Automatic annotation (TrEMBL):
Coiled coil: none annotated. This is Manganese catalase family protein. Belongs to the manganese catalase family. It comes from the Bacteria.
Length: 184
């Protein structure tokens, strides 16, 4: 299912080193609302879902979140940040308790919507902490991708509640793939 591409999902450029902002970004690498937490949460959830479309959606979004984690790591390195470990900005180790787990699909998707909402909010706060236009562009890109994920989770949740048809569920994957077209 997973493929590694040498090319980054989004090009990372920095105007100058900024170790203080790099440290701020470590929260997205391994904090509570990090790309790592999102990727593992979605990947774990997909293992418990019978609906093949939602399972596929969670799989491809999980893979994308790992790609976002790589973007953050490259940005931290280019900004002259600290060595990357699974520690947040307060020095706490990342742990499995940081991912939400449920076996109810509707609740899972609600947790995913809340996760994306928190991540978007954190990125929006961090926009104000840098003057680097390249970092602002990267953060806006990640906010936009989070909004896409949130939209798709809401749509999946609605389809489950309304007993959507296979064609409607298939649109989830189509919508995801179309959201990538603007990136090319």
């Amino acid at each position: 299912m997973f493929n590694y591409h040498k090319r980054l999902f989004y090009p990372i450029h920095v105007e100058r080193e900024d170790p203080a902002f790099a440290k701020v970004l470590t929260e997205h690498y391994s904090g509570i609302d990090s790309e790592l937490s999102s990727a593992l949460q979605y990947f774990n959830q997909r293992s418990n879902i019978l609906n093949r479309h939602i399972r596929e959606l969670l799989g491809i979004i999980s893979a994308e979140e790992f790609g976002h984690m790589e973007l953050i790591s490259v940005a931290i390195n280019k900004l002259g940040g600290p060595p990357l470990t699974l520690v947040n900005t307060q020095g706490a180790l990342w742990g499995i308790t940081q991912i939400n787990q449920s076996l109810d699909v509707i609740k899972m998707l609600q947790m995913d919507i809340q996760t994306e909402t928190r991540v978007i909010r954190l990125y929006q706060q961090q926009l104000k902490l840098t003057d680097d236009l390249n970092m602002k562009k990267m953060i806006r890109f990640l906010i936009t991708r989070g909004e896409v994920h949130k939209y798709l989770f809401k749509k999946a949740q609605k389809l489950l509640r309304e007993n959507g048809s296979p064609e409607e569920f298939n649109e989830l994957i189509y919508d995801y793939k179309m959201s990538l077209q603007v990136l090319k």
